[in-house]
Every structure is written in structure tokens, then in C-alpha cells.
Amino acid sequence: MSAPKPTRRVPAALAYAIRDRDDSRCVGCGDRVDGDLYQTWAIGRRIPSAPRGTPATDPRIVLPSNLILLCGYNAGCHRAIVAHPNEARARGLRLWRSQNPLTVPVLAWTGAARGAVTLASHVTPFYVDNAGIRAVVDRRPNPLATAGRRA
């Protein structure tokens, strides 16, 4: 299957599929999103499209593995990821062009309380594939990995 032609805007049908995959919750903050596409919520690209004025040539930018649901279109988490790319990269919300979205997990915010809490206890890591499926990463320790080790 060939990749779709890269565009600046994610097609509406794909955007709604990403919203359904992410359970209508912003991956950045966990807030429920509703309202109109490109008004109150947006689809963020983990690998950003090319800068304005240049053609979008990377076919990965419109694949489901590269897309995440974010609150705000020109505000909210959508703006925060653009403004703070290093923090976003630490959570897999933004990637370098050399990275593969299929192999870098996304750390989605699942905690209700914000503030003085540890990030690790309030995020759920998951992988996304190009079929639009989320696979949660098992964070339980593997007993076989620690077998035979001395304490």
C-alpha cells in the first residue's frame, strides 16, 4: 500500500479517525475535546510538516502513526508542543525527522490532577500504527528479564 500524498492539512475523515483512536481526549493534557475540527481541536504531527512556503514532501506526515489528537487549534496543547519542542520530544509528542513514529511510544496524559505530581505516574505509554490502532505498552516488570540477577 502506497502512502497518501502529503498535504498541509489532514483530511477530515482521517482527523475524525484519529480522534476516535485517541478516545476524544487530548494526548497532551487528557482533556476531552469536542466541537469543530480546526476550531477547538486539532491533529498534531509528531514529525512536523515542512516549514511554510516549502512543499510537504515527507509521506510520513499524513500517516496515522505520526498523528495525535490535541486540544486547541492555535492554542492549548497544540501551541504548547510547537512552543516547547524539547519537552514534547521527551513524551514522544514531537519527533526528529530521523525517528520512526512506529517505534517511538507516545506518553499520553492520563492523570486528573496537574501540578506537583510526577509525570511518570500520570502518563500512559502507547504505540500507534498505520492502521489506526493504539497498543498500550506493558509497564509491569518482566519476571524473565530479572531472573538470575542478584539483588
Describe this structure in words.
This is HNH endonuclease. It comes from Glycomyces paridis. The chain is an alpha+beta fold and 151 residues long. The protein has one domain. The protein is 19% helix and 15% strand. It is built from four helices and five strands. It has helices at residues 12-21, 76-83, 85-90, 143-146, and strands at 41-45, 67-71, 106-109, 123-128, 134-136. A hairpin with a 5-residue loop joins strand 4 (123-128) and strand 5. The longest helix has 10 residues, at 12-21.
The biggest sheet, with number of strands, parallel, antiparallel or mixed sense and barrel status, is: 3 strands, antiparallel
In DSSP terms (H or I, runs of 4 or more residues), the helix count works out at 4
Secondary-structure class: alpha+beta
Q: How far is the first residue's CA from the last residue's CA?
A: 49 Å
Strand content: 15-25%
Number of strands: 5
Protein name: HNH endonuclease
Key terms for this structure?
151 residues; alpha+beta; 3-stranded antiparallel sheet; two-stranded antiparallel sheet; 4 helices; 5 strands; 15% strand; globular; disordered C terminus
